């Protein structure tokens, strides 16, 4: 059994940032990630990031992963990372986690504190033939193209015009895939205008107030019917259009991946604005379980920039809770929150601003 | 037009929307009950695809809000592990 001071589950933007802060504060960190290499979703982000300078605005996502990893190289023996390994469960009776490397090696981990930075999973929508080969989550398509160099199809239909749908549409076009259309059930585009403008400029139509009605094909996807929806999300008869496509990308939202926190008995709340059930936490990113912290998309579906700052807060506070003396704690903690608040300004993050007060308890959790 | 049987809700265990709706109408109104009867959510992804869809269907057909539908139990492991691998593990 491996023992560590802080276990971080997930090596994406939140987990890596948490590791950096915790190690800086003096703690010993074990980070476990199921990917073959660290970086989480960052390693497939070929576009430049927005946000603030502290969070590498203007830098491409995969470069940000490299920056975070090079920072961690300075950690010496205070940091260990295990990749290709899934943390498979938490056993509350003895405070032990199970972990599986590949499909072959099972081992246990016993940490003092745990930061859950597991990210999110892609949602799907139930339409006829949604199980045909050629139907993907947009994130999966991005991984195929940008991590593995696989062209996923020739003609694509993108479902969802949030940032992921818009960005992946552009990257599909860059990879030589013809994007036939983007459909979005909401009456307006959910993502940033700059991403939407880019795909409109190269001639990709965006149908708002439209959804996918049915996927066609026998052995694989051959096309889809899209249809207009009214303000009550009901299909408007007679507005069906046929789109020829061998690739359907679903970018219909993400949900926090928090099985471990359910197993730990953390208090959860259903907050649709944040992506579904999320753990209740205080401003230190500590959950209702005194040994569990959360950061990034596992806490609420947001951006990589906010995930990194939440990670820093969780790493800093988990180290402090272990008794490490951090002379500039207050200063850092307040600066991180200022950065979070400033990133959460603006119309695109309105939902987040509505949802977060329901997830964050006003007073710090007073754990004995 | 019956398209419900062409809508796969649980891809791991091949459970259709038709089956799910039928069960809800017969009074199976929690994810755990539907899981025990159909195996929905018991495959490799352990419900990450179907769980939200089933909850939404239950909410829609029973007129309840999503947060009123009890969540299933999240038992470890969250990913299938071969028994042999567990047996061979040096950790006990």
Task: Describe the structure using short key phrases.
heterodimer; A: alpha/beta; FAD/NAD(P)-binding domain; 2 domains; seven-stranded mixed sheet; 19 strands; about 30% helix; B: about 90 residues; mainly alpha; two-stranded antiparallel ribbon
Describe the model:
The complex is a heterodimer of chains A (368) and B (92). Chain A has 368 residues and is α/β, with parallel strands linked by helices. Chain A has two domains: 2-121 and 254-359, 3-Layer(bba) Sandwich (FAD/NAD(P)-binding domain), CATH 3.50.50.60; 124-248, FAD/NAD(P)-binding domain, CATH 3.50.50.60. Chain A has helices at 13-24, 61-72, 138-146, 163-174, 193-201, 259-263, 304-321, 329-343, 350-359; strands at residues 2-9, 29-32, 79-82, 85-91, 96-101, 105-116, 120-122, 135-137, 155-159, 178-184, 206-208, 210-216, 223-228, 241-244, 247-250, 254-256, 268-271, 276-279, 292-294. In chain A, helix 3 runs parallel beside helix 4 and helix 4 (163-174) runs parallel beside helix 5. Chain B has helices spanning 17-25, 31-38, 50-62, 83-88, and strands at residues 8-10, 15-16. Chain B has a two-stranded antiparallel ribbon. The N and C termini of chain B lie far apart (55 Å). The A-B interface holds A 1, 86, 88-91, 98, 100, 103-108, 121, 123-124, 126-131, 214, 255, 257, 259-260, 262-263, 268, 270, 272, 276-277 and B 3, 6-9, 11, 17, 46, 48-49, 52-53, 66-67, 71, 74-79, 81-82, 85-86, 88-91.
Secondary structure elements and their pairing?
The complex is a heterodimer of chains A (368) and B (92).
Chain A: E1 2-9, H1 13-24, E2 29-32, H2 61-72, E3 79-82, E4 85-91, E5 96-101, E6 105-116, E7 120-122, E8 135-137, H3 138-146, E9 155-159, H4 163-174, E10 178-184, H5 193-201, E11 206-208, E12 210-216, E13 223-228, E14 241-244, E15 247-250, E16 254-256, H6 259-263, E17 268-271, E18 276-279, E19 292-294, H7 304-321, H8 329-343, H9 350-359
Helix pairs in contact in A: 1-2, 1-7, 3-4, 4-5, 7-8
Chain B: E1 8-10, E2 15-16, H1 17-25, H2 31-38, H3 50-62, H4 83-88
Antiparallel strand pairs in B: 1-2
């Amino acid at each position: 059994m491996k023992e560590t001071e802080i276990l971080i589950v997930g090596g994406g933007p939140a987990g890596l940032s948490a590791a950096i802060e915790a190690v800086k504060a003096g703690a010993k960190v074990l980070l476990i990630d199921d990917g073959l290499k660290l970086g989480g979703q960052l390693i497939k982000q070929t576009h430049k990031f927005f946000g603030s300078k502290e969070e590498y605005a203007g830098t491409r996502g995969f470069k940000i992963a490299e920056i975070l990893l090079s920072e961690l190289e300075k950690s010496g023996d205070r940091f260990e990372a295990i990749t290709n390994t899934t943390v498979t469960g938490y056993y509350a009776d003895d405070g032990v986690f199970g972990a599986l490397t590949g499909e072959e090696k099972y081992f246990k981990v016993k940490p003092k504190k745990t930061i859950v930075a597991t990210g999110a999973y892609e949602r799907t929508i139930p339409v006829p033939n949604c199980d045909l080969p050629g139907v993907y989550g947009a994130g999966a398509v991005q991984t195929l193209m940008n991590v593995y160099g696989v062209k996923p199809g020739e003609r694509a239909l993108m479902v969802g015009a949030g940032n992921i749908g818009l960005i992946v549409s552009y990257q599909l076009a860059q990879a030589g895939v013809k994007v036939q259309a983007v459909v979005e059930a909401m009456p307006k585009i959910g993502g940033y205008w700059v991403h939407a403008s880019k795909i409109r400029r190269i001639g990709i139509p965006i149908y708002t107030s439209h959804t996918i009605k049915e996927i066609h094909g026998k052995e694989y996807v051959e096309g889809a019917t899209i249809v207009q929806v009214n303000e009550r999300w009901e299909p408007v008869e007679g507005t069906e259009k046929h789109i020829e496509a061998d690739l359907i990308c679903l970018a219909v939202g993400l949900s926090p991946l928090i099985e471990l926190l359910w197993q730990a008995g953390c208090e959860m709340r259903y907050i649709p604005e944040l992506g579904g059930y999320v753990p209740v936490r205080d401003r230190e990113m500590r959950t209702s379980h005194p040994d569990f912290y959360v950061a990034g998309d596992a806490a609420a579906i947001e951006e990589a920039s906010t995930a990194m700052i939440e990670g820093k807060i969780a790493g800093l506070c988990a180290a402090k809770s272990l008794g490490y003396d951090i002379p500039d704690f207050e200063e850092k903690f307040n600066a991180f929150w200022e950065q979070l608040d400033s990133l959460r300004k603006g119309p695109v993050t309105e939902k987040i601003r509505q949802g977060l007060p329901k997830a964050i308890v006003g007073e710090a959790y007073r754990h004995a | 037009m019956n398209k419900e049987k062409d809508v796969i809700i649980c891809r791991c265990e091949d459970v259709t929307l038709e089956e799910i709706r039928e069960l809800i109408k017969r009074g199976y109104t929690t994810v755990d009950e539907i899981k025990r009867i159909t195996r929905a959510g018991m495959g490799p992804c352990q419900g990450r695809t179907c769980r939200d869809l089933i909850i939404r269907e239950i909410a829609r057909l029973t007129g309840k809000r999503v947060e009123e539908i009890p969540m299933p139990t999240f038992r470890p492991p969250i990913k299938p592990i071969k028994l042999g691998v567990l047996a061979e593990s040096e950790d006990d």
